[in-house]
Amino acid sequence: MAETVAVRPEEGREPGGSAYFAYEERPRLLEGLRAYGLIVAMWVRSTMAYRASFVMTTFGNLAVTAFDFLTIVLMFTHVDALGGYTLPEIALLYGVSATAFGLCDLLLGSMERLGRRVRDGTLDTLLVRPVPVLAQVAADRFALRRLGRIVQGLAVLVYALVTLDIAWTPLKVVMLPVMVISGAAVFGAVFVAGAAFQFVAQDASQVQSAFTYGGATLLQYPPTIFAKDLVRGVTFVVPLAFVSWLPTLYVLGREYPLDLPQWVAFLPPVVAVAFGALAGLAWRAALRTYRSTGS
User: Fold this and answer.
1) What's phi and psi for 19, nearest 5 deg?
2) CA–CA gap between residue 143 and residue 207 (Å, rounded)
3) What is the pTM of this model?
4) Regarding beta strands 19-27 and 4-13, do their DSSP bridges make them parallel or antiparallel, or are they unpaired?
5) Does 104 score more than 80 pLDDT?
6) Each residue of 185-217: b (16+ CB within 10 Å) or e?
């Protein structure tokens, strides 16, 4: 049976004349999505009230993230290949991971501030509202300027696709949007799991950033330049390899360093759902342990 919440009370009267409230019930997931959309719309309206500022901050965000790829380009002024990969091949790895992470960062990037709310007690204000706390935390201070990161990632991705000579098949064509969306979902699960950890550590935003922003940077480079223990860790423990490494190497026709079977390249949607479910359980367990500061 779906969990429901009571929203939008409507006052009426019973036949005997006494007042009562009739509550409309919605599945909790739908109510969470609705609340998320309303909060996001509020922040977007606030942002667009200062459009010049929005344009400048978005462009600045794009320019700052562009330096990541510029660093890679500068490396290739001195070498012909990095870990056996050419610049266009690394650009494909970069474009997929940067776009997937940018999409997730736009939608869930505000969750890294949860530890601050736990410390100062302002999380209590979210608990008394009749909507899921996760939706409120995710949408809080929604930053539309993060679109710059997505645009920059897409630009590099387009450059890679135009430059590379890939033997395209219908399956590879379908895999491109699937791995970007699945990758964003995997990063989203990492954001949620990291937020759950902040209930315990309270000042763990940097630890969370090591797996989110740090993970995105890691995936921009080929797995052949990293130690195999690290590659195993981001494959079997925190499955960031399913964001770009595994599916992208299939598109490029390259073998994965751990000698995994080729069919694992098609698992990103499955991994995203499974890891997301585990992150959701961790979030629910952590939220139940929360104790107010009392202030």
Assistant:
1) -80, 150
2) 21
3) 0.85
4) antiparallel
5) yes
6) bbbbbbbbbbbbbbbeeeebbeebeebbbebbe
